[in-house]
Amino acid sequence: MKIRIVLLLLAVVFGIAAVIGVMIYLNNVRSAIEEEGETAKVAVAIENIAVETRVSAMISSKIIEIKEIPKKFLVENALDSLQGYEDYVAKVAITKGEQLTAAKFGKIEEVRISFTVPEDFVAVSIPYNEIKGVSNLVKAGDKVNVIGTLQPSKDDLLLLNKDMVTQMLIQLKDDNSQTETESGLPSSSFLSMDSIMDESNYIVYPLTKILLWNIEVLYIGSMKVTAADTEEGKSITASGSSSKDKEAIKTVTLALTPEQAETLVFIEELGSVWLALVPAGGIDEEETLGRTYLNIIE
Questions:
Q1: What Å distances lie between residue 101 and 43, 76, 250, CA to CA?
Q2: Quick one: 225 and 139 in the same domain?
Q3: Residues 144 and 263 in one domain
């Protein structure tokens, strides 16, 4: 009899424990569901925003929205309002759909801290856009290769072969000083065409070639001016990107030796320039043939 009573009591205890365990489990599940369903407000960019864009311009051009998203998708230190940031600018490029955090904004003087040009180098700026600049992935401090396409105007087009150059040299040589071989041709010392043409039959344009290797990026700037500013002759200030804005300046500044600076400016004036992002430590330089219509399909 006593054993039955003990077993009954144990069954009751285990039953109560099982009920309590089930209740705890259900409460945890309910809490998880409630937390997953909780939302929070966050400021989100609805367009790509360039560096140095003013927060006040973002607000006026309505390229920032306050959205409600599940809390589990909220990034750390996300802002739910830009109040108090009106005098700030974007310190970094902000991508469409990105949540805004305080770290992305700063005073204009903080953003424009003067960069240091390395000794024996010069700083040269060229026009820049997202496509030629690797989809906005290029940042100050990165290293890039400069790829140039040289396409002279019609009057500057040059297409020579060895025979043509030989004939030009023969015509230019003074008849009195010309020495002929037994065959009647100019001497080999006069026509060292392999050295002149560097074993290449043609000089062909357009030509695309890596011109500069492992070049340091000092600064990337982007500024906009509204149509109203243009009409009223106002000074250009950084502002937001919108359909009503007209792009004024967008540049990338590179650290170059004087010779490299000449090369870059020349190719920028007579052709076009693309940037190729390379690893932080740079890559080994290697001589490339360049690409023309004659070898593009090799």
A1: 8, 8, 24
A2: yes
A3: yes
